[in-house]
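Here is an idea for our session: we take a single protein and study its fold together. To get us started, please write out a protein record for me. Start from the sequence, derive the backbone structure tokens from it, and show both lines together. Go ahead whenever you are ready, and we will take it from there:
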Amino acid sequence: MNVLVYAGPEALKNSVTHSISSLRSILLPHYSVQTITNQTINSQPWKASCALFVIPQCNGTLQTASSNSIKEFVESGGSLLTFGAGAIRSSRELTGAASISQDLLLGVFDKTTRSYTYLTYFNDGGLSNEPLALHTSDGSIIEGISGLGSGKFHGLGDDNTILARTSNGSIAGLSMRVGQGKMA
């Protein structure tokens, strides 16, 4: 099975590089970790062999065709991992709201809850070089994590699992079920 790391023009190069090296050090030899571009997303049959789709930190919205393909992957049971993104959950579609739609990275519809979950990209100049401490849900503290953007989370219900928080209490990692798939 493959772990595919998005490497389109919106993805920050440092985040792509860090994502690939970190995931390879953890997952090899059990999974193949490789990049995927917009062209491949839209022209090749990648979904059947993809165990995890990864979106590194981005500085803009994904192209519509790629976004639709990733959305279908998650809604039909795929797993998505994002870095430096926030999330908004809403009972209505937000793409028409001009002030919000420019910051939306990807939207997924959950048929079970009849709600939309939108990933928002971190629009604050890129990765932070300031080291942070993460407090995990099991009480562990991980010191010296750098290169994190801090996403904002709005409208999320009780059906999410907070994986980690920063020292100031902001959510650093969150896991949620969306449709038949999972997002973190």
